[in-house]
Amino acid sequence: MEVGRLPISASQRGKLIAAGYTTLSSFSSLSPSHLARDLKISDNEAAEIMRVASHSHRLDGSAAGCGTVNGAQTAWDMLHEEEMFPRITTSCMDLDNILGGGINCKEVTEIGGVPGIGKTQLGIQLAINVQIPVDYGGLGGKAIYIDTEGSFMVERALQIAEACIEDMSECGGLLRKDFQACQLKMHPNNILENIFYFRVCSYTEQIALINYLDKFISEHKDVKIVIVDSVTFHFRQDFDDMALRTRLLSGMALKLMKLAKDFSLAVVLLNQVTNKYIDGSFQLTLALGDSWSHSCTNRVILYWNGNERYAYIDKSPSLRSASAPYSVTSKGIRNSASNCKRIKMM
Amino acid sequence: MANKQISQMGLPKSIANVFAARNVFTAKDALSLTEFELMELLDVGLAQVTSAVAHISEIVCPPCQTALSLMELRVQNEHLAGHLPTHMKGLDEALCGGIPFGVLTELVGPAGIGKTQFCLKLSLLASLPASYGGLDGHVIYIDVESKFSSRRLIEIGVKSFPEIFHRKGMAQEMAGRIHVLRPASLSEFTESLQQIKISLLQNQVKLLVIDSMAALVTGEFEHGAPRQNTLGWHVSFIKSLAEFSRIPVVVTNQVRSQSRDEICHYYFQVQSWNETIEDRTRHDSHLVAALGINWAHAVTIRLVLEAKSDQRFIKVAKSPISPPLAFPFNITSSGILLLSDDGIELTGPDINAIHCQGHNDIINFGGESLQC
């Protein structure tokens, strides 16, 4: 392994190369004091370089040496793990069906659509549904809601929370025993208390917050969903340097993906739409450009189809592309009105 | 917070000095670079950069609130839980009490439908004493199209709140609370926005009205494309004004007719696209809001004012709290009035469509008889 790939400062790297140490193996057998003398640096600094080098060396060696790779997971284990995690329901059966049961944990899902289609509604609904107790087939987790647009409405969250509890007590009639206990626990105020709300006012704050989430979530382990509403807003205003924008966005996407993996939680990014000129006509696409569209695992587009709202799976590694109707009611996201019969049959 | 100085964040002295020496002064500078770029620039190890970035991030990132504490704060601190009642019962109910504080509310509609009338009424309501359901505050009215009429304002006041306006001096006091600005160009508008930011903190301003946002840019640009970008800064500035002073902001928007090839769909909707083309040829007029999709994303509540089959309607087209409802209304000498408090629920494309059919016939100046 080359010295150039070590995560050390540029001047230290320069000193190493100037002293003739171009590969790791060339100095890994030296003592720190020897290295310090050669490079004319302090003993502490030399010890630090040795520590970093031996760490990288070990990773490098294990990859080449043994048959199994450190940190890897077999596909069979992954399948097993995937089945263990319940999905977060959207409260709309048809939408859940095309999503394979709901929003998946450990994945980044992007949801976009025209203004007024119900992106924020879906966001609030998910923040509440993640709290459905395990007894009712939910996750019993908490939610982080990152609001960049100021569109989160507490009044609306309260409405949806009340409707959610109502629905649960209806199906709780069958399991009367645990219902009593659950009712105590599930008060609308408790639901609101479990939504951690951050109001972000600039893209710097947005990046800072996403850096900080790592620490925040390790203090609040039961957070099971992170919703960003919307990921676009600050990146769409006052940006002249598009290359910088792309770089910052992809850095942010990587951090979010890492969060999703490390803490097995769902990340939902809401995105706006924009007009794009393709083949002589304007088309609607999600904002932030082509390189951004690679950064999410799943992509769902909400759109109007005649009189109904539809969701379309635009991109997913495991789901086939399909569309399903849904509607936004006073209770929140529900099945489309024309499919009402199906609800009654249940 | 984004421009907070790194030197004041309590980082270890040695690393803080390195940041300063490399011209990385603010959090914005530091967080706009990746960790590896920072390593190169500052000439320090990865571990130090990571911990410094984590430290900066923690200080810059906004405070965490729970939704519950948010709600309790609003109920405690704000009159009417943060809403400006429009005194139109049906609409107030749909919007949970009126025009909410802290967000943008947009009025869209064809010329002469009553957008300015709506704004005048709201200005009046915000300046009224709290005992009459007002906010008892000052109003800043940015009148781009020079349509503000003091005479009409007083008329609405006298007709709808005679008990206040017939008291001596009250009309003067109420009207004295409304400050009208008339910027002639976008740059003047930008300037006055910045002044407003200061005066919002000093005075008891309880409402900001901008009539209209579209006129500012349609005057300056012919093409659709640059329009969105020019407003980018204004959109986020106005939003942050609303947020930090916690006042309602009402903005009007004009309409323009949409040509057929501009109708937008997603690529996977190709089939239905052909159908809609046939559809559209049958309609002679097809109106859309003058400011584009980027602007539409930025407003939290969109109210569409339209005329359909000899009747005017006010529609809640976009709102996080209300279902899409339409209320018939009329404009009388006492201002805009709903004819019915029961909204008609809308579905599908009707929600966003802007109809404009012969509303000129139904303007009713002596509409006393219609006040029911």
TrEMBL record, chain A:
PROSITE patterns: RECA_2. InterPro entries: DNA_recomb/repair_RecA-like, HR_Repair_Mediator, P-loop_NTPase, Rad51_C, RecA_ATP-bd. One of its GO terms (molecular function) is four-way junction DNA binding. Pfam families: Rad51. It is found in: Nucleus. It comes from the Eukaryota. One of its GO terms (biological process) is reciprocal meiotic recombination. GO terms for cellular component: Rad51B-Rad51C-Rad51D-XRCC2 complex; Rad51C-XRCC3 complex; replication fork. The keyword DNA repair applies. Residues 84-273 form the RecA family profile domain. Keywords: ATP-binding, DNA damage, DNA recombination, DNA repair, DNA-binding, Nucleotide-binding, Nucleus. PANTHER family: DNA REPAIR PROTEIN RAD51 HOMOLOG 3, DNA REPAIR PROTEIN RAD51 HOMOLOG 3 RAD51C. Belongs to the RecA family. RAD51 subfamily. Involved in the homologous recombination repair (HRR) pathway of double-stranded DNA breaks arising during DNA replication or induced by DNA-damaging agents. This is DNA repair protein RAD51 homolog 3. It comes from Quercus rubra.
UniProtKB/TrEMBL annotation, chain B:
Residues 80-255 form the RecA family profile domain. It is found in: Nucleus. GO terms for cellular component: Rad51B-Rad51C-Rad51D-XRCC2 complex; replication fork. Its main location: nucleus. InterPro entries: AAA+_ATPase (IPR003593), DNA_recomb/repair_RecA-like (IPR016467), HHH_XRCC3_RAD51B (IPR058766), P-loop_NTPase (IPR027417), Rad51_C (IPR013632), RAD51B (IPR030548), RecA_ATP-bd (IPR020588). Keywords: ATP-binding, DNA damage, DNA recombination, DNA repair, DNA-binding, Nucleotide-binding, Nucleus. Pfam families: HHH_XRCC3_RpoA (PF26169), Rad51 (PF08423). GO terms for molecular function: ATP binding; ATP-dependent DNA damage sensor activity; double-stranded DNA binding; four-way junction DNA binding; single-stranded DNA binding. One of its GO terms (biological process) is double-strand break repair via homologous recombination. PROSITE patterns: RECA_2 (PS50162). The keyword Nucleotide-binding applies. It comes from the Eukaryota. Belongs to the RecA family. RAD51 subfamily. This is RecA family profile 1 domain-containing protein. It comes from Quercus rubra. The lineage of its organism: Eukaryota, Viridiplantae, Streptophyta, Embryophyta, Tracheophyta.
